[in-house]
Amino acid sequence: MLAVTKPVQTALGRCDAWQLRLDKFSFERDDDATAKTESLKDVLACYTERSVGHLSHVCRSKNRFIESLKRHHGTRFGIVELFAESRLLLHLGRASVLENVGLCADRTTGLPLIPGTSLKGVLSTWACWEANQKPDGSFNEGATFVQHRRQFSKDFARRVFGDDSQDGSEHAGDIIFVGGFPATPPNLGLDIVNPHHEPDGRDKTNLTPNVFLCVEPGITKWHFVFYVRPGARDAAKLLQVASDWITEALTQIGIGAKTAAGYGRFRQPNETDKAAQAREVEKTKAAEAAAAEQAKVAAEKTKQQAAAQASLMIDYPNPATFRNKVIDKLNPGQLDRLQPEIVALQKPENAAQCEELKKLLASKDYKDIRKRLRDKPWFPKEWLPPQ
């Protein structure tokens, strides 16, 4: 067992990345049977309290990416929108200091997602089953199963998934599966499984629940994105087949781990989902508008503070001060009293007043003053017009 050191605890206090906390900073402590549970509770709290706000921006960015794909691929682009019907477990074997607790998430942002490879694998199995299903609902078995699979592969399955010949693949599939992405940050939760047997096969005398993370079902809409390779024929038919397979496979068998127990199932959107999603969209828009207004107010406040700070640094805050300190001294009797003001006029904050002095000295009314200033070693000659 590993003990959490004080430096690590300090780092955890500043860590907003739930996936980093899960993979690197979750430790089992002091042989405590509940240590794993407590670590996962900390991860869940980090996700709920710190990461979700950031992930809202990530979801909006991902939605813009999907729209960009749609514009780029046009009629070759496909998307299926589904809602999670049950808890989702994917990538339980993710590398982590704790065993069987992981979720599939974007490595950089921490957004829970479904990789395109996982989606393609589920559809490959579904296509195989579909090819072997008899009219009465039963399935071919044994050699007949393989024969029907190969026969079906000559049609759209081979086009969609690519060649799987034993002699070596000749071509890739015509469909690119990008993956499944939540439209808004999904809720995470904790679930348990109770192992009933010891590693050596004996029955357990004391059942110790094994806790793991999962994506909770709810009103979160998922986008399953795919597109047809450029140049592929029958693009519309390929898109329709892939769309039907995604809908059928994810609503009937699910995706990820423990699908036999009902995990990983999705449903097509119903009226309740649509209404809830519309409320979420309005809520998001209102939050964005409020944030934009706050940012605008903060920017204006910062601007005013900067202006106030700048005014404090100016040596001549108003025309009267400038006239009293500088212009009134442009006469033969007080010219030497102008010397202390030279340093102030050279400051960047007083650039406007310095330019005003230059224009004044260039006028014909100050011809005699210009002549006298050229003889003053302390006066910058570049402020005077050329003779």
Strand/helix succession: HHHEEHHHEEEEHEHHHHH
Q: Please report the number of helical segments.
A: 12
From the alpha carbons, calculate the radius of gyration and give it in angstroms: 35 Å
Distance between the termini: 87 Å
What does this protein look like?
The protein is an alpha+beta fold and 387 residues long. Helix content is 47%, strand content 10%. It has 12 helices and 7 strands. A 5-stranded antiparallel sheet has the order 2-3-6-1-7. It has a two-stranded antiparallel sheet with strand order 4-5.
Short description:
By secondary structure, the protein is α+β, with helices and mostly antiparallel strands.
Write the layout of secondary structure elements.
Elements: H1 6-13, H2 18-24, H3 35-73, E1 77-84, E2 114-115, H4 116-132, H5 142-153, H6 156-161, E3 175-182, E4 188-193, E5 210-215, E6 221-228, H7 235-252, E7 266-267, H8 271-313, H9 319-325, H10 341-345, H11 351-361, H12 367-374
Helix pairs in contact: 2-3, 4-5, 4-7
Keywords, separated by commas or semicolons:
387 residues, alpha+beta, 2 domains, two-stranded antiparallel sheet, 12 helices, 7 strands
